[in-house]
UniProtKB/TrEMBL annotation:
InterPro entries: Lambda_DNA-bd_dom_sf (IPR010982)
Region (Disordered): 25-51, 68-96
Domain of life: Bacteria
Name of the molecule in the record: Helix-turn-helix domain-containing protein
Entries under Gene3D superfamilies matching the protein: lambda repressor-like DNA-binding domains
Length: 239
C-alpha cells in the first residue's frame, strides 16, 4: 500500500531525476542506489528506504546531505545548486577550550572495573552500611558512561554501522547495546541509541535520526583520526 508520505517522497525523487535528465541506470552510475531501490522509492512501494539508500539518493540527485531523509519525514530536499560554496564545505573542527576530553586506554578501563566490582559486592553484602548502596549506584553510573564511551569509540573506528560485527564486543559489552527503554537522561539515551546504530541495530530509529547518527560517525572518524592517528587504541572521555 502506498501512503501519502511515501507517494510525496517518491514524487520528489522522480521529479529531481527527470529535472537532471537522468535515467535510473545513470543515477546508479552516479553513486545512487540500484534500479530496484529507485523504483521502490519513486513508486512508494516496499519498506521505507534504508539510510544507505537515502544517502545514495542525496549523492546521485545532487541534494545536500540529509535531504532525502528529511524529505521522507515530510520536509523538502535542498539542491546543491541552491547552496553557496561555503555552505557545502566540510564542517570545521569545534574550538577546543581546554582539556575537556582525555584519552583513556583499555587497560585503564579494566583497572577501573576491578574496584567497581568489589564495591558493588561490598554494597550487596553490607546493606546496613549507611550511604554505601547509593555510592555504589553512583559509581556504576559513572563507570557505565566510561565503558559506554569506550565501546562507542571502538565501534566508530572499526567501520561504524557498515563495519563487521564482532561477537566479542557483544559478549563483553552486550548490556551497553541494549534498547535504552529505562534511560531517562536525554544525553545518555542519545549515546545508547548511537551505540546501537553503530552496531547495526537501527530498529526504532526514524530516517532523520539515522541520518544524524551517520553524519556524526563520519564527522567523528574524520576529525579524530586525521588529527590524532596515534590514538586509535584509546577512547576519549569527557572530563
Amino acid at each position: 500500500m502506498v501512503t501519502s508520505t511515501r507517494a510525496r517522497f517518491g514524487e520528489f525523487v522522480y521529479k529531481r531525476r527527470r529535472l537532471l535528465n537522468l535515467t535510473q541506470d545513470q543515477v546508479t552510475a552516479a553513486g545512487g542506489p540500484s534500479d530496484a531501490a529507485q523504483t521502490r522509492a519513486e513508486n512508494g512501494t516496499g519498506p521505507d528506504p534504508s539510510i544507505e539508500t537515502l544517502r545514495k539518493l542525496d549523492v546521485a540527485l545532487r541534494w545536500a546531505p540529509g535531504s532525502a531523509a528529511r524529505t521522507l519525514d515530510g520536509g523538502s530536499p535542498t539542491p546543491l545548486e541552491a547552496l553557496d560554496t561555503d555552505d557545502r564545505s566540510l564542517p570545521s573542527r569545534p574550538l577546543s577550550l581546554g582539556p575537556s576530553e582525555i584519552p583513556l586506554s583499555l587497560d585503564t578501563i579494566i583497572e577501573v572495573l576491578g574496584p567497581h566490582t568489589r564495591i558493588n559486592k561490598l554494597s550487596a553484602a553490607h546493606p546496613e552500611v549507611p550511604g554505601l548502596a547509593e555510592a555504589a549506584a553512583d559509581l556504576s553510573r559513572v563507570v557505565s558512561k566510561i565503558t559506554g564511551a569506550y565501546v562507542t569509540r571502538l565501534l566508530e573506528v572499526n567501520g561504524g554501522p557498515a563495519g563487521p560485527r564482532q561477537p566479542l564486543v557483544e559478549f563483553a559489552f552486550g548490556h551497553l547495546l541494549e534498547e535504552p527503554s529505562t534511560v531517562s537522561d536525554p544525553h545518555e539515551r542519545e549515546e545508547a541509541l548511537y551505540r546501537r546504530f553503530l552496531y547495526g541495530r537501527e530498529e526504532g530509529l526514524d530516517a532523520a535520526t539515522r541520518e544524524r547518527f551517520w553524519r556524526r560517525w563520519e564527522d567523528t572518524v574524520r576529525l579524530k583520526d586525521t588529527d590524532h592517528p596515534e590514538r586509535s587504541g584509546d577512547t576519549e572521555v569527557n572530563a
